[in-house]
Design goal:
31% strand, disordered C terminus, 5 helices
């Protein structure tokens, strides 16, 4: 079964020691498997495959391991979930017993849905989310621990490191394959985060300007910082309406050659 494209393969027969990380990004309609050498800071292998149903996810994951016999066991497998089934709760108000209640305000969940949570560094908040559904038990033979995270947790953690000691306001625009995340940070506090669907560049511009209007932001002095999947055309169309536009390398992009740090992948 063809499960995707091997974008990188590194071989080094003389090497005697390495720390190998393994993560699976389950996107809105694609899955990416990343095998990463932390010592050399290099991607050893990266496979991507599209899916249309949750049953496809099970087949793709089992197919990956059956076609890559060298990957027999990892101390930790990290799953990064890409969906809009999440909400941010102030840490002081969070109660694990009420975890299913928080998402009722902005999404519809099923009784069978699993609810997870994780703390966001430097923000005194909790990200409550529903993971992408698939048979996670099939990973048990390849690892002793499956660590699950939501991509917005990683994104916000990155942003707050950038925003440390910053008292001004910035809008962050993170672009995925069919979704965009818009985040407002003001005085080093999270003021707004939402995810929108888009099909064309004009949709992205519309949501950016819509948020500026609804949040009473001045496009003359509140900058936009873009990350993710974007090109010069997207940059230029936003630049026509926003005075200050810049970019940064996000660690959580669903791309063939992702950028990693230790927050994203766990050492073996």
């Amino acid at each position: 079964m063809e499960i995707g494209r091997k974008t990188i393969e590194k071989k080094n027969k003389t090497k005697t020691f390495s720390i190998i990380n393994f993560s699976i990004h389950i996107g809105y309609n694609e899955i990416t498997f990343i095998v990463f050498d932390e010592i050399d800071s290099q991607i050893l292998n990266c496979y991507t495959s599209d899916y249309s149903t949750y049953n496809d996810i099970n087949l793709i994951i089992s197919g990956f391991f059956s076609e890559n016999k060298t990957y027999t066991f990892f101390n930790t497998i990290e799953l990064i979930h890409f969906n809009n089934l999440h909400t941010i709760v102030p840490k002081a108000l969070f109660n694990k017993k009420d975890i299913k209640e928080y998402l009722k305000f902005n999404t519809t969940s099923l009784k069978t849905d699993k609810h997870l949570h994780e703390y966001i560094e430097n923000n005194e908040s909790v990200n409550v989310f529903i993971p992408v559904y698939f048979n996670i038990n099939q990973l048990s033979q390849f690892t002793k621990e499956v660590k699950q995270s939501h991509y917005t947790t990683i994104l916000l953690t990155e942003i707050f490191k950038i925003e440390k000691n910053n008292t001004s306001s910035n809008v962050y625009l993170n672009i995925n394959k069919s979704k965009i995340d818009l985040i407002l940070i003001s005085e080093n506090k999270l003021k707004f985060i939402n995810t929108f669907d888009f099909t064309c560049e004009e949709d992205i511009l519309y949501y950016v300007l819509f948020c500026y209007e609804q949040l009473n932001l001045n496009p003359e002095n509140i900058p936009v910082i873009i990350s993710g999947r974007f090109n010069e055309s997207i940059y230029n169309i936003i630049y026509k309406y926003i005075r200050n536009v810049s970019t940064y390398d996000s660690k959580i992009e669903m791309k063939d050659y992702p950028v990693f740090n230790n927050n994203l992948i766990t050492p073996i």
